[in-house]
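Hi C.,

You asked whether I'd gotten around to modeling the 298-residue construct. I have! Everything is below, sequence then structure, no commentary in between.
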Amino acid sequence: MSIFWNVWIIGLTSINLILLLWVLLANRKVAIRDDDDPENKTTGHIYDGIEEYDNPLPKWWFYLFVGSMIFTLFYLILYPGLGSFKGLRGWTSVNQLEYQQKQALEQYQNSYGVYSKMTVVDLADEPRAMKMASRIFDNNCAVCHGADAGGALGFPNLTDNDWLYGGTPEKIKETIMEGRAAAMPAWAGLLGEKGINEVTQYVLSLSGQEHDATLVDAGQTIFANSCVACHGQDGRGSHANGAPNLTDDIWLYEGTPAGIRQTLRAGRNGNMPAQKDRLREDKIHLLTAYVYSLSKEN
């Protein structure tokens, strides 16, 4: 803060307090004792037949104002309020936040602290821990994966046993902490519409869907030359690079002919944000157990 604004704030605050005190004291009057003189009982202001009495403030009201002024004086000495003066207590909002966070950590140490020492597998069978974890999921994950964790178009279903990067406790925690960035390149420029249609028919055959058998061989050839690096020779995908399994009926995006063509034509991009900077490690541990329990039940 510059010297000008520092002096401005201190001066403005001080002048306002002095003026308020002056107004208070200047209007402090002794109660009128001459009850026989009606002119001494009013201010002379008349509005719509209503006269304003010229009486002093009640004592309790006056002393309440005085007490407020005294409180203000001590407050400005102890706490910041006069420019860059930090107050004798050195209070800051940052210090207050850190203090409250420390208190919260101590308060929840008996719950989070105990659970952080348990394995993910054991936590998945602990009802109270899973109830806490479900609230963490609702606050941080449900916006993408849904309140029931059933996922949506482009967001994986966490309640089945199909995993892009692996469903072990270690892999789930790695995904939550570090995030994931997946990309399916666009093939329209290389394959053209004819090639895209042929690969589509081959992918449909892999998952046992209705397809055009006359185009499968051509699609298989293109797949072997362009797609096996990620999806594997048999089309079952890989946890190493997050390539989906194309031989089942679980689809991250639409598994219809139109949806597969769109994926091949324009590509796909998925992003799971890293949570390690947003959630404490003990919460991530609970969240890992919760996600693990969802697929464990199926």
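If it helps when you're writing up: The two ends are 60 Å apart (CA to CA).

Thanks,
B.
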